[in-house]
Amino acid sequence: MRNGRMTGLALVLALAASVAMADETDDIAHATARRLAVGVCGTCHGTHGVSELPKFPRLAGQNANYLAVQLKAFRSQTRGDPDAIGYMWGMAGNLEDGTIDALAQYYSVQTAGGSQAGDPALIARGKTIYQQGLESVGVPACAACHGPDAHGMGDFPRLAGQHAQYVLKQLSSFQNNMRNVAVMHGVAQGLKHEEMSAVAAFLEAQP
Amino acid sequence: MNLWRPIAARGVRVLAPALLLLAVPAAHAVPSYARQTGMACEACHTVFPELTHFGRMFKASGYVLDNLKQVKGVTPQREEILSLAGLPPLSIMVQASYTQLSTPLPDSSGTGKSQNGTVAFPQQVSLFYAGKIAPHVGAFLQLTYDYAAGTIGIDNTDIRFADLTILPGDQSLIYGLSLNNNPTVQDLWNSTAAFGFPYALSASAPGVPYAAQIDGARAQDVAGLTAYLFWNESLYGELGVYRSAKQGTGSGPLDSTTPGGVIDGGAPYWRVAYEYNVGRHSIEAGLYGATFKIFPDFGAGYGQLLAGPSDRYQDVAEDVQYQFLADQHLFSLAATRIHESQTLNATFAAGKSDNLNNDLTTTRAYATYYYRRKIGGTAGFFTTTGSTDVTFLGNTSGAPDTSGWIAELNYLPWLNTKFSLQYTAYNKYSGLSDNYDGMGRNAKDNNTLYLLAWLSY
After folding, report:
1. N or C: which end of chain A has fewer CB within 10 A?
2. Global pTM?
3. Per residue in B166-215, pLDDT tens?
4. A90 and B233 in contact by Cβ < 8 A?
5. So what's the ipTM on this one?
6. Do B67 and A37 touch (CB under 8 A)?
């Protein structure tokens, strides 16, 4: 009985120690991530992940799982759109899992950048495609996965407020399979360039 | 490496055409940074060597961003005592060129003509150590074989310490130190002297003969330590001091026979700049300057005690830069105006100048366009004006005035290979359009066609 209590106590202590160690590891990872976010990532992706340059996506308020999956895809060089190859394969090449998770966490809790103005006619056209899809060419409604407000759902990324140029480049990359994602390849296959531009303009204008 | 290596500004007053051949261009592009970061050249450069905002931040952060596997050393207290890249950050640069002058230069006898159509193979070969040395410490160190000099020597060098502190609101404050050998080589923008356009010039053609001290006159001739702050990737301030550190003059202290003039004490250097980035646009405006007190070199046989009066050169410059960066189209503007006030206490007292006070003003402005970073070019103008002083400048007119324009077409089959066709045209040279040397040579005779192959790997 006494031995049992001792074993129980030892287990509790070991658990507490591992929790404390895990906390410490988390703290280090979060501090590292914040430093990276401010000192390195922020140069392109902007302070708090609200980038100014349309070439670089806004990360603020993005789904943490999605961010972590992308960083791991850059690290393993399995995401192959041009800017991923030129910029992110190197940047993510040496990131540890803990740092990736902490970076994803950092950006997911930042306040999203908000909407950007655009051409009203193009936005209206994009809204229709986003909400209803293009049945005639087999394009489903984007809203079905990315949410009616484009804030993302589950592991599907937030698109609201994203730079139109970035969204357009990603759709093109899905289409030509440089960014190899089967679902999005299927979705984007039937889209014409002006339709992709319209969806991108609509998304950029969403809060 | 420096663009317009000046001659008269060093106190060498004789402007024989042969001396003008010393106008050696700048050149720098360092693929070892790409290897270290794992990022394509385009992250840091529009087209090398012009920097993007990210490139400026990489430089300000000490060249240390790395994504290579590291050889590590850690104490039991988790203190990192070694972090060494698995591969040394080495690069090689080769330039080969062909130069055609409008009219051949006089030969050394002064009566005949030199051969025109100069082939330089190589014009320059450089070995770089460019990358991280240790956490927070990195380097840009260049060893260059210069075909005109026929020697290997230290070229531009910038060794940095830099660190970052995070301010409230997640704003960054980078602070750092730069130990370098050329005022402005440490600067982040391509509007200042060391890394401004033109990035390469013929070593066989006459260059702009007069330049301010901060405009390359002291390149690789000094050692400077500067400290800088860069707040929120926008406001930049730097202070430092330069002192003579001449290469190839023996290991003893500098003395009265040291060629090229010796700085009296230290020359203070300062820089402020503000950069604003919005959308695809990046705009910078700034001021920079330095004050050099120099014991003049009156040429072989004169000697000058390194004590007593010295000449004072006070340089104050403005610069602006604008960049528009998209995937297809890249456009940039860069301009600087450098004003130098010269108080020639020593030279005037020795009867080697007509005036105690002279001034020199240089303005350069360039516009660059590239399509997909593959095909593009730069065009712009340069002008230098100043006081008339026949005794000091030693030329026919007594004026330093030199002006003209330069245009360059570039083709880059790969991001690290550049093929250039450059044309420089002079309206005025050494104060005159016609017969500037008293021997019948006109400014436009120095017009230069220059073909360059520039490979970095």
Report:
1. N
2. 0.92
3. 999 999 999 999 999 999 999 999 999 999 999 999 999 999 999 999 99
4. no
5. 0.88
6. no
